[in-house]
Specification:
- The chain is an alpha/beta fold and 159 residues long.
- The chain has one domain: 3-Layer(aba) Sandwich (Rossmann fold).
- 36% of the residues lie in helices and 18% in strands.
- The protein has a five-stranded parallel β-sheet with strand order 2-1-3-4-5, sandwiched between helices.
- Strand 3, helix 4 and strand 4 form a beta-alpha-beta unit.
- Helix 2 packs parallel to helix 5.
- The protein is globular.
- It binds 1,3,4-trihydroxy-5-OXO-cyclohexanecarboxylic acid.
- The site of 1,3,4-trihydroxy-5-OXO-cyclohexanecarboxylic acid has 10 residues, from loops.
Length: 159
């Protein structure tokens, strides 16, 4: 008899936009002192505890992020689009065509900041949004992805 097939791992892509590679030294009073490399490590460990396979990427270039979204076959996407959040309809369009679960994340609370940061183009395509919780927001987003991907359709109707 064949051994029981193990449950397939769910896949999540975490995308980070312009200037997030500078975390740790960039405006630490706003974004904290945690580097993006540390956030990646924390996310990788957390994804593992949920049985998620994770890809983590950062780019300063809008087109690279759009290519990553277009080429993704992941079931979920966590995106901190950084400043592109407030200016990119192109990014919004690529997210609208992504068929998986989308969570928008920001380290800072964009609704408590400058007026030009209080509008997000990409929220229209997101299933949920976490902001203002620093690096913890990424981990909470992974919790939400795991919950979303693992929940049965019956549960989904009630939660
Ligand atoms: C950010 C908020 C954006 O307004 C800003 O341009 C960023 C980071 C955040 O994580 O708080 O680069 O997305």
């Amino acid at each position: 008899m064949n051994p029981p097939a193990s449950r397939p791992l769910h896949r999540v892509l975490i995308l980070n936009g312009p200037n997030l590679n500078q975390l740790g030294k960039r405006e630490p009073e706003i974004y904290g002192s945690t580097t993006l490399a540390t956030i990646e490590t924390l996310c990788r460990k957390h994804a593992q505890t949920h049985g998620l396979t994770m890809t983590f990427q950062q780019s300063n270039h809008e087109g690279v992020l759009i290519d990553a979204i277009q080429n993704s076959s992941d079931e979920a996407l966590i995106i901190n689009a950084a400043a592109l959040t407030h200016q990119s309809i192109a990014l919004l369009d690529s997210l609208r065509a992504f068929t998986g679960f989308i969570l928008e994340v920001h380290l800072s609370n964009i609704y408590k900041r400058e007026p030009y940061r209080r509008h997000s183009y990409i929220s229209e395509a997101a299933d949920g949004l976490i902001c203002g919780l620093g690096a913890q927001g990424y981990l909470l987003a992974l919790d939400a992805v795991a919950h979303h991907l693992n929940e049965s359709p019956k549960e989904k109707a009630h939660v």
